[in-house]
Write a structure and sequence with these properties.
The protein is mostly helical and 729 residues long. It is built from 37 helices and four strands. The strands form two sheets. Strands 1-2 form a two-stranded antiparallel ribbon.
């Protein structure tokens, strides 16, 4: 029987049609865009074979590479499942660390090895369940939820290990990771087994299709999988299974890492995050046309490993992996975005030429002016009469002092009472409060600068390393005997340059902001290590520290600098057209562009502002320490993001704002300071900041509920009653 195909002759059969397409399929299969990683691998093999043939072209090198990379590849394979379901799990590194520490902690408690391994995997599953609750029940965007979970896990790891290696494990336990089969260690074969199992589930089962369907409708900023739910897929259950899978695989990788080291190391987790995410995103460009997949991830993980291994064998510095992995992540996601152009390159060039004529520019100017006039007219017509506005003051007053509007102030009052009763001798002193206001000023300054890009819709995960870059560039320039004003200006210019780089990655390479800034963060880490030699830069001019240690009215200069910057940015955001454009861009960039807002230019301004303020904060940090410390940057990330999101719940009805951020930063500082004065362990800030971030974003999501709790409960009851009636009938 002949099978007719649209657009083909009626006599043309399906076997003939399919058979005739094999040359086309073969060309696509070997196309650069489909297997770019394999071509890159071939190039690197040739380069390193010529560069370091004596050490690269040996069987031992390749055996060690396959075995040593197996654990990282295993983590990446496990991460494919939640990312395919639309969940970006930034806690994946600390999940590995948790598995490693829990296994070591249980083993030194003399539990049998199988029981310790099983409980470690259960801990990973528990983390997955907790992340699921934060994402689906608290409605926190996945990358923010998992960032907060990561901070909580860091505190748990420090608590279990006392921030020290756990040694004295059973002698036979290391056999799990060091034993060999066919010349390769067991972790390699475990990775192959897990990869095969997950590949089969994703590619050949209905569950795999549901996972891809759930993730296919989730945008990079944490949007919901509404289309999949309308198709009858239980998306919440899919996300739960994906997160549990990722958590279990990560915990298992941590167990293997502990066996490999014969010790539980509390610091191993964070090092997995960037290479794993780079492998998953680079893997998505391989074999499956832009879809996250297991085989592509395995190939990408080993391609990245070959690059790092070859550079290390060539004797390059220790910061090379950070540079290589950051560049690979940006290249991978940029390539994935490039695979999905809105039209052909010819159409894009023609569109660009048509839009670059004087007539096109004139039409755009007229359209923007017309839209601006309409918006102004609409605002004038919607203005409330003075008499009506005056009559609403009691309601406004109640709204202003409502718990949901100034919750941070109520929380501050509660903490002041608690710590005043708990540690009155140290908490209730003028010196404590002066030091708190002064010491927290730099963190608050970074948070204030971060408000602008976040208000524009950009989550800048490089903000911590931008602070570190400002600190190191300032110190590096000063020991080069440059005048202090010149060093300050060049440091701020470096921050602006980072903002421009992030803008290029987001708007031109079309990389999601949190992935782009994560890759930029890795590049900056390499630059910081290169400039500083991974050591503190000392010997700065004596008068330079005066910038941060000088006082006015009993408070250090950074506090007053923060206040000035906060006032300036508040005025721009709340009282100027640019501020309205920033909020419009962050609220809905497509709608903002249709109303005439140049969203790309707004993002550029926002990222430059954030980079300059962060670099200035790093400059003040260097002046405060009288040295350039290459390790200070990452510590700013979580408290700053927590302050910005908690600040968004204050004063402005869920909108990111300057004064809410300032209040939130100091509320968090009071909490951490009080707990430290009470003698709690050093991991307390991680626990407090992680919980505060989850609470802040969860509260912001709760504020945005489209219906009241009473309405939601009534709707739930009505649904249940209808379901019961249908069942009875």
């Amino acid at each position: 029987m002949n099978v007719a195909t649209p657009g083909k002759a009626p006599g043309e059969t399906l076997p003939e049609l399919v058979g005739g397409r094999w040359p086309v399929r073969l060309r696509k299969a070997v196309a650069f865009r489909n297997i770019a990683a394999l071509y890159l691998l071939a190039v690197m093999v040739v380069v390193f074979s010529l560069w370091v043939p004596d050490s690269f072209l040996t069987a031992g090198t390749w055996r060690s590479l396959l075995s040593d990379q197996a654990i990282t590849c295993l983590v990446a394979v496990g991460l494919v499942v939640p990312i395919a379901a639309g969940v970006v799990d930034l806690a994946i590194g600390t999940e590995v660390g948790l598995g490693a520490i829990v296994a070591a902690w249980l083993l030194i408690g003399h539990l049998p090895t199988p029981v310790a391994v099983l409980l470690s995997l259960t801990a990973g599953a528990g983390v997955g369940v907790f992340s699921w609750l934060m994402i689906t029940r608290a409605r926190i965007p996945s990358f923010i939820a998992t960032l907060g979970v990561s901070s909580l896990l860091t505190a748990v790891i420090a608590w279990l290990s006392n921030s020290e290696q756990i040694i004295g494990l059973p002698t036979g336990f290391s056999r799990i990771a060091t034993g060999q089969f066919l010349g390769l260690t067991y972790p390699f074969w475990i990775m192959i087994t897990v990869s095969t199992l997950l590949w089969y589930v994703l590619e050949h089962t209905p569950l795999g299709r549901r996972i891809y369907a759930t993730g296919g409708n989730v945008d990079a900023m944490g949007g919901s999988s509404e289309a999949a739910a309308l198709a009858g897929i239980r998306t919440s259950r899919i996300i739960l299974g994906a997160l549990i899978t990722g958590g279990v695989v990560a915990a298992g990788a941590g167990v293997l890492e502990t066996a490999q080291l014969s010790a539980g190391d509390p610091t191993i987790g964070p090092g997995f995050l960037l290479p794993v995410i780079a492998a998953v995103f680079l893997g998505s460009t391989q074999f499956r046309g832009g879809r996250f997949n297991i085989c592509g991830t395995v190939a990408a993980a080993y391609v990245l490993a070959v690059g790092v291994k070859g550079l290390q064998l060539a004797g390059l510095p220790i910061w090379t992996p950070d540079l290589f992995n950051g560049a690979a992540l940006l290249l991978a996601v940029g390539l994935a975005a490039w695979r999905r152009p809105v039209g052909t390159r010819r159409e894009a060039v023609l569109r660009l030429l048509r839009g670059s004529t004087p007539a096109a520019w004139s039409r755009r100017r007229i359209r923007r002016a017309d839209l601006a006039a309409r918006i102004t007219t609409a605002r004038a017509s919607d203005r409330i009469p003075p008499k009506v506005a005056g009559g609403r003051w009691p309601a406004r007053l109640r709204g202003a002092v409502a718990f949901r509007n100034v919750a941070a102030l109520y929380l501050l009052a509660v903490m002041v009472v608690v710590f005043s009763l708990w540690v009155p001798d140290s908490f209730l002193t003028a010196g404590t409060w002066r030091s708190l206001l002064s010491d927290q000023a730099i963190t608050c300054l970074v948070a204030v600068g971060l408000v602008v890009p976040i208000a524009a819709g950009v989550v800048d995960l490089a903000i911590g390393t931008e602070v570190g870059l400002g600190a190191i560039v300032t110190a590096w320039l000063l020991i080069g005997h440059l005048p202090t004003p010149v060093a300050v200006m060049l440091s701020l210019a470096a921050g602006a340059a980072v903002g421009i780089l992030s803008w290029l990655m987001i708007t031109r390479a079309r990389i999601p902001s949190f992935i782009a800034t994560l890759g930029v963060s890795s590049l900056l880490t390499a630059v910081i290590a290169w400039l500083s030699g991974s050591e503190q830069i000392v010997g700065l001019p004596e008068g330079f520290s005066r910038i941060a240690t000088g006082q006015f009215l009993g408070l250090a200069y950074p506090f007053w600098i923060m206040i000035v910057v906060a006032i300036l940015l508040w005025y721009v955001l709340e009282r100027t057209p640019l501020g309205r454009q920033i909020y419009a861009t962050g609220g809905n960039p497509h709608a903002a562009a249709l109303t005439g807002v140049r969203t790309s230019r707004v993002l550029l301004y926002a990222l430059i502002t954030g980079g300059v303020v962060a670099a200035g904060a790093g400059l003040l940090e260097t002046a405060q320490l009288s040295a350039g410390d290459p390790t200070i940057g990452p510590g700013f990330l979580l408290p700053v993001i927590a302050a910005v999101f908690l600040g968004s719940t204050q004063f402005r009805g869920g909108r990111f704002n300057i004064w809410g951020t300032v209040v939130a930063a100091y509320v968090l500082a009071v909490g951490v300071k009080g707990l430290q004065l009470a003698g709690l362990p050093i991991w307390t800030p991680d626990l407090f900041n992680g919980a505060a971030l989850l609470l802040a974003v969860g509260l912001a999501a709760w504020r945005g509920t489209p219906a009241t709790r009473r309405t939601a409960i009534l709707r739930l009851l009505r649904i249940r009653s209808v379901t019961s009636a249908d069942g009875a009938s």
